[in-house]
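Q: I'm writing up a methods section and want to include an example of the input and output format. Could you take the sequence below and give the corresponding predicted C-alpha coordinates, formatted cleanly so I can copy it straight into the document?
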Amino acid sequence: MASSFIPPSFGRSISESIIPDVKTTLNLFGIHWRKVDGEWSYPVHSHPQYEMNYVLEGEQAFIVNNKAYQQRAGDLVLLRPGALHASRSGNGKPFTYFCIHFDMDDPLFLSMLSRMEQVLFKAGTGAAEQLRPALLKLVELSRGMAEAEGTSFAKRMGLQAAVFELFGQLGEACLAESGLHFKVSDQKAELARHIQNRLQSMVFQQFKPMDAHANERSLGIADIAADLGISSSYCNRVFKQVFGMSPREYLSVQMLHEAKMLLSDPRLTVNQISVILGYRDIAHFSRQFKRWHGQAPTEFRRLYMDSQASDETLR
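A: Here is the clean output for your methods example:
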Protein backbone atom coordinates (compact mmCIF):
# COMPACT_ATOMS: atom_id res chain seq x y z
CA MET A 1 0.00 0.00 0.00
CA ALA A 2 1.39 3.38 -0.95
CA SER A 3 2.47 5.77 1.77
CA SER A 4 0.11 8.60 2.57
CA PHE A 5 3.08 10.98 2.58
CA ILE A 6 4.20 12.44 -0.77
CA PRO A 7 7.58 14.20 -0.57
CA PRO A 8 7.75 17.65 -2.17
CA SER A 9 9.05 17.74 -5.74
CA PHE A 10 10.38 21.29 -5.52
CA GLY A 11 13.40 22.72 -3.75
CA ARG A 12 16.24 20.84 -2.21
CA SER A 13 16.35 19.01 1.12
CA ILE A 14 19.40 19.64 3.26
CA SER A 15 18.48 16.85 5.68
CA GLU A 16 15.35 15.03 6.72
CA SER A 17 14.03 12.20 8.84
CA ILE A 18 10.81 10.48 7.79
CA ILE A 19 9.03 8.34 10.37
CA PRO A 20 7.16 5.28 9.00
CA ASP A 21 3.37 5.62 8.91
CA VAL A 22 1.66 4.69 12.19
CA LYS A 23 -1.68 2.95 11.74
CA THR A 24 -2.87 1.44 15.00
CA THR A 25 -6.40 0.82 16.23
CA LEU A 26 -6.72 0.85 20.03
CA ASN A 27 -9.87 -0.26 21.85
CA LEU A 28 -10.18 0.17 25.62
CA PHE A 29 -12.92 -1.53 27.64
CA GLY A 30 -13.97 -1.50 31.27
CA ILE A 31 -11.12 0.53 32.75
CA HIS A 32 -11.82 0.74 36.48
CA TRP A 33 -10.37 0.59 39.95
CA ARG A 34 -12.41 -1.01 42.68
CA LYS A 35 -12.18 -1.54 46.44
CA VAL A 36 -14.17 -4.56 47.63
CA ASP A 37 -14.86 -6.31 50.92
CA GLY A 38 -13.61 -9.72 51.96
CA GLU A 39 -16.78 -11.48 50.79
CA TRP A 40 -16.55 -10.14 47.21
CA SER A 41 -16.05 -12.56 44.32
CA TYR A 42 -16.23 -12.45 40.52
CA PRO A 43 -17.65 -15.51 38.71
CA VAL A 44 -15.90 -17.50 35.98
CA HIS A 45 -16.00 -15.62 32.68
CA SER A 46 -13.94 -14.75 29.60
CA HIS A 47 -13.79 -11.91 27.11
CA PRO A 48 -12.28 -11.30 23.65
CA GLN A 49 -9.77 -8.72 24.87
CA TYR A 50 -6.52 -8.83 26.82
CA GLU A 51 -6.83 -7.90 30.49
CA MET A 52 -4.30 -6.35 32.86
CA ASN A 53 -5.24 -6.64 36.54
CA TYR A 54 -3.09 -4.87 39.14
CA VAL A 55 -3.57 -5.15 42.91
CA LEU A 56 -3.07 -1.86 44.75
CA GLU A 57 -3.84 -3.00 48.31
CA GLY A 58 -4.55 -6.37 49.93
CA GLU A 59 -4.66 -9.77 48.24
CA GLN A 60 -6.64 -11.28 45.39
CA ALA A 61 -7.03 -14.97 44.56
CA PHE A 62 -7.15 -15.49 40.79
CA ILE A 63 -8.17 -18.68 38.97
CA VAL A 64 -7.01 -18.66 35.33
CA ASN A 65 -7.82 -21.67 33.14
CA ASN A 66 -8.22 -23.79 36.30
CA LYS A 67 -4.84 -22.72 37.75
CA ALA A 68 -4.70 -20.76 41.02
CA TYR A 69 -2.64 -17.58 41.54
CA GLN A 70 -2.22 -15.52 44.71
CA GLN A 71 -1.94 -11.85 43.77
CA ARG A 72 -0.65 -9.37 46.36
CA ALA A 73 -0.15 -5.60 46.31
CA GLY A 74 2.07 -4.65 43.36
CA ASP A 75 1.50 -7.96 41.54
CA LEU A 76 0.28 -7.83 37.93
CA VAL A 77 -1.86 -10.41 36.12
CA LEU A 78 -1.92 -10.44 32.30
CA LEU A 79 -4.72 -12.45 30.71
CA ARG A 80 -5.00 -13.51 27.08
CA PRO A 81 -8.26 -13.19 25.15
CA GLY A 82 -10.58 -16.11 25.84
CA ALA A 83 -8.91 -17.14 29.11
CA LEU A 84 -11.45 -18.43 31.62
CA HIS A 85 -10.89 -16.67 34.93
CA ALA A 86 -12.48 -15.83 38.27
CA SER A 87 -11.33 -13.90 41.33
CA ARG A 88 -12.09 -13.25 45.01
CA SER A 89 -10.39 -11.93 48.13
CA GLY A 90 -7.18 -13.82 48.77
CA ASN A 91 -7.38 -13.70 52.56
CA GLY A 92 -10.98 -12.86 53.39
CA LYS A 93 -10.14 -9.17 53.81
CA PRO A 94 -10.89 -6.08 51.66
CA PHE A 95 -8.60 -5.35 48.73
CA THR A 96 -8.26 -2.79 45.93
CA TYR A 97 -7.40 -3.53 42.31
CA PHE A 98 -7.12 -1.74 38.97
CA CYS A 99 -8.28 -3.37 35.74
CA ILE A 100 -8.05 -2.57 32.04
CA HIS A 101 -9.30 -4.56 29.04
CA PHE A 102 -7.75 -3.74 25.70
CA ASP A 103 -7.53 -4.74 22.07
CA MET A 104 -4.95 -3.35 19.65
CA ASP A 105 -4.17 -4.41 16.09
CA ASP A 106 -0.44 -3.58 16.05
CA PRO A 107 1.15 -6.84 14.78
CA LEU A 108 4.50 -6.38 16.52
CA PHE A 109 2.82 -5.71 19.87
CA LEU A 110 0.50 -8.71 19.39
CA SER A 111 3.46 -10.87 18.45
CA MET A 112 5.29 -9.94 21.65
CA LEU A 113 2.19 -10.55 23.80
CA SER A 114 1.54 -13.91 22.13
CA ARG A 115 5.00 -15.13 23.16
CA MET A 116 4.41 -14.35 26.81
CA GLU A 117 3.32 -17.51 28.61
CA GLN A 118 3.56 -15.94 32.07
CA VAL A 119 0.31 -14.90 33.80
CA LEU A 120 1.44 -13.53 37.19
CA PHE A 121 4.24 -10.95 37.50
CA LYS A 122 5.34 -10.51 41.11
CA ALA A 123 5.95 -7.07 42.63
CA GLY A 124 9.55 -5.88 42.60
CA THR A 125 10.64 -8.11 39.74
CA GLY A 126 10.78 -7.90 35.96
CA ALA A 127 7.71 -6.63 34.17
CA ALA A 128 5.78 -5.61 37.30
CA GLU A 129 8.54 -3.24 38.40
CA GLN A 130 9.03 -1.81 34.90
CA LEU A 131 5.29 -1.21 34.44
CA ARG A 132 4.62 0.14 37.93
CA PRO A 133 5.12 3.91 37.21
CA ALA A 134 2.95 3.79 34.06
CA LEU A 135 0.27 1.75 35.84
CA LEU A 136 0.10 4.13 38.81
CA LYS A 137 -0.11 7.10 36.46
CA LEU A 138 -3.03 5.44 34.66
CA VAL A 139 -4.71 4.66 37.99
CA GLU A 140 -4.55 8.33 39.03
CA LEU A 141 -5.87 9.50 35.65
CA SER A 142 -8.78 7.08 35.78
CA ARG A 143 -9.62 8.07 39.34
CA GLY A 144 -9.61 11.72 38.36
CA MET A 145 -11.90 11.07 35.42
CA ALA A 146 -14.29 9.04 37.58
CA GLU A 147 -14.52 11.82 40.18
CA ALA A 148 -15.00 14.61 37.61
CA GLU A 149 -18.44 15.83 36.60
CA GLY A 150 -17.78 15.03 32.95
CA THR A 151 -15.01 13.67 30.75
CA SER A 152 -13.44 16.28 28.49
CA PHE A 153 -11.80 15.55 25.17
CA ALA A 154 -8.42 16.54 26.60
CA LYS A 155 -8.81 14.08 29.50
CA ARG A 156 -9.76 11.26 27.16
CA MET A 157 -6.73 11.97 24.98
CA GLY A 158 -4.57 12.10 28.11
CA LEU A 159 -5.89 8.71 29.17
CA GLN A 160 -5.11 7.21 25.77
CA ALA A 161 -1.62 8.73 25.84
CA ALA A 162 -1.03 7.12 29.25
CA VAL A 163 -2.25 3.76 27.91
CA PHE A 164 0.15 3.94 24.96
CA GLU A 165 2.96 4.78 27.39
CA LEU A 166 1.99 1.72 29.41
CA PHE A 167 1.92 -0.47 26.30
CA GLY A 168 5.36 0.79 25.28
CA GLN A 169 6.69 -0.38 28.63
CA LEU A 170 4.74 -3.64 28.35
CA GLY A 171 6.29 -4.34 24.95
CA GLU A 172 9.79 -3.75 26.33
CA ALA A 173 9.00 -5.97 29.31
CA CYS A 174 7.75 -8.74 27.01
CA LEU A 175 11.03 -8.67 25.11
CA ALA A 176 13.05 -8.71 28.33
CA GLU A 177 11.03 -11.51 29.96
CA SER A 178 11.12 -13.76 26.88
CA GLY A 179 14.70 -12.92 25.90
CA LEU A 180 13.63 -11.80 22.45
CA HIS A 181 15.50 -9.20 20.45
CA PHE A 182 14.61 -8.11 16.96
CA LYS A 183 17.99 -7.58 15.30
CA VAL A 184 17.31 -6.94 11.65
CA SER A 185 18.67 -4.44 9.17
CA ASP A 186 16.83 -1.23 8.36
CA GLN A 187 16.26 -2.54 4.82
CA LYS A 188 14.58 -5.70 6.06
CA ALA A 189 12.50 -3.77 8.57
CA GLU A 190 11.30 -1.41 5.83
CA LEU A 191 10.49 -4.33 3.51
CA ALA A 192 8.55 -6.03 6.29
CA ARG A 193 6.53 -2.84 6.81
CA HIS A 194 5.70 -2.75 3.11
CA ILE A 195 4.50 -6.34 3.32
CA GLN A 196 2.48 -5.48 6.44
CA ASN A 197 0.81 -2.53 4.69
CA ARG A 198 -0.15 -4.73 1.76
CA LEU A 199 -1.54 -7.38 4.09
CA GLN A 200 -3.41 -4.74 6.07
CA SER A 201 -5.03 -3.44 2.90
CA MET A 202 -6.22 -6.98 2.16
CA VAL A 203 -7.96 -7.09 5.53
CA PHE A 204 -9.54 -3.65 5.52
CA GLN A 205 -10.57 -3.50 1.88
CA GLN A 206 -14.17 -4.18 0.90
CA PHE A 207 -14.31 -7.93 1.48
CA LYS A 208 -15.09 -10.11 -1.51
CA PRO A 209 -16.53 -13.63 -1.25
CA MET A 210 -13.89 -16.32 -1.02
CA ASP A 211 -13.90 -19.24 -3.41
CA ALA A 212 -13.00 -22.83 -2.67
CA HIS A 213 -9.35 -22.30 -3.70
CA ALA A 214 -8.63 -19.18 -1.59
CA ASN A 215 -6.30 -21.00 0.78
CA GLU A 216 -4.44 -22.65 -2.11
CA ARG A 217 -3.50 -19.20 -3.40
CA SER A 218 -1.86 -18.42 -0.03
CA LEU A 219 -4.30 -15.55 0.48
CA GLY A 220 -2.50 -13.42 -2.13
CA ILE A 221 0.89 -13.53 -0.39
CA ALA A 222 2.56 -14.80 -3.56
CA ASP A 223 1.14 -11.79 -5.43
CA ILE A 224 2.51 -9.40 -2.81
CA ALA A 225 5.95 -11.00 -3.09
CA ALA A 226 5.85 -10.77 -6.90
CA ASP A 227 4.85 -7.09 -6.78
CA LEU A 228 7.78 -6.37 -4.45
CA GLY A 229 10.19 -8.30 -6.68
CA ILE A 230 11.01 -10.98 -4.09
CA SER A 231 10.30 -14.69 -3.71
CA SER A 232 7.46 -15.95 -1.53
CA SER A 233 9.94 -17.72 0.75
CA TYR A 234 11.96 -14.53 1.27
CA CYS A 235 8.74 -12.58 1.86
CA ASN A 236 7.75 -15.04 4.60
CA ARG A 237 11.24 -15.13 6.14
CA VAL A 238 11.70 -11.34 6.37
CA PHE A 239 8.20 -10.76 7.74
CA LYS A 240 8.66 -13.40 10.43
CA GLN A 241 12.07 -12.00 11.42
CA VAL A 242 10.53 -8.60 12.11
CA PHE A 243 7.05 -9.42 13.39
CA GLY A 244 7.57 -12.88 14.88
CA MET A 245 4.82 -14.47 12.80
CA SER A 246 4.31 -15.48 9.19
CA PRO A 247 2.20 -13.34 6.82
CA ARG A 248 -0.48 -16.04 6.91
CA GLU A 249 -0.52 -15.98 10.73
CA TYR A 250 -0.72 -12.17 10.64
CA LEU A 251 -3.75 -12.34 8.34
CA SER A 252 -5.39 -14.86 10.66
CA VAL A 253 -4.80 -12.57 13.67
CA GLN A 254 -6.30 -9.61 11.82
CA MET A 255 -9.30 -11.58 10.54
CA LEU A 256 -9.92 -13.00 14.03
CA HIS A 257 -9.78 -9.46 15.43
CA GLU A 258 -12.37 -8.29 12.91
CA ALA A 259 -14.59 -11.31 13.59
CA LYS A 260 -14.47 -10.74 17.36
CA MET A 261 -15.38 -7.09 17.02
CA LEU A 262 -18.35 -7.95 14.79
CA LEU A 263 -19.51 -10.78 17.08
CA SER A 264 -19.44 -8.32 20.00
CA ASP A 265 -22.21 -6.37 18.25
CA PRO A 266 -25.54 -8.10 19.08
CA ARG A 267 -27.27 -6.30 16.22
CA LEU A 268 -25.50 -8.49 13.67
CA THR A 269 -26.38 -12.13 13.10
CA VAL A 270 -23.59 -14.67 12.64
CA ASN A 271 -24.77 -15.17 9.08
CA GLN A 272 -24.48 -11.42 8.38
CA ILE A 273 -20.98 -11.40 9.87
CA SER A 274 -19.89 -14.30 7.66
CA VAL A 275 -21.07 -12.33 4.61
CA ILE A 276 -19.30 -9.13 5.76
CA LEU A 277 -16.05 -11.06 6.17
CA GLY A 278 -16.38 -12.59 2.71
CA TYR A 279 -17.13 -16.22 3.52
CA ARG A 280 -19.21 -18.23 1.08
CA ASP A 281 -21.48 -19.54 3.85
CA ILE A 282 -21.93 -19.51 7.63
CA ALA A 283 -20.59 -23.06 8.00
CA HIS A 284 -17.27 -22.09 6.41
CA PHE A 285 -16.95 -19.06 8.69
CA SER A 286 -17.84 -21.13 11.79
CA ARG A 287 -15.21 -23.75 10.97
CA GLN A 288 -12.54 -21.13 10.37
CA PHE A 289 -13.38 -19.17 13.53
CA LYS A 290 -13.23 -22.35 15.63
CA ARG A 291 -9.87 -23.22 14.07
CA TRP A 292 -8.56 -19.77 15.03
CA HIS A 293 -10.09 -19.40 18.47
CA GLY A 294 -11.10 -22.87 19.68
CA GLN A 295 -14.75 -21.84 20.03
CA ALA A 296 -17.69 -21.64 17.65
CA PRO A 297 -18.82 -18.06 16.87
CA THR A 298 -22.11 -18.61 18.73
CA GLU A 299 -20.27 -19.88 21.83
CA PHE A 300 -17.85 -16.94 21.74
CA ARG A 301 -20.78 -14.50 21.48
CA ARG A 302 -22.67 -16.18 24.35
CA LEU A 303 -19.65 -16.02 26.68
CA TYR A 304 -18.98 -12.42 25.69
CA MET A 305 -22.57 -11.37 26.36
CA ASP A 306 -22.55 -13.25 29.70
CA SER A 307 -19.34 -11.45 30.75
CA GLN A 308 -20.83 -8.08 29.78
CA ALA A 309 -23.95 -8.85 31.84
CA SER A 310 -21.77 -9.85 34.81
CA ASP A 311 -19.78 -6.62 34.50
CA GLU A 312 -22.96 -4.55 34.60
CA THR A 313 -24.30 -6.49 37.60
CA LEU A 314 -21.10 -6.07 39.61
CA ARG A 315 -20.44 -2.40 38.83
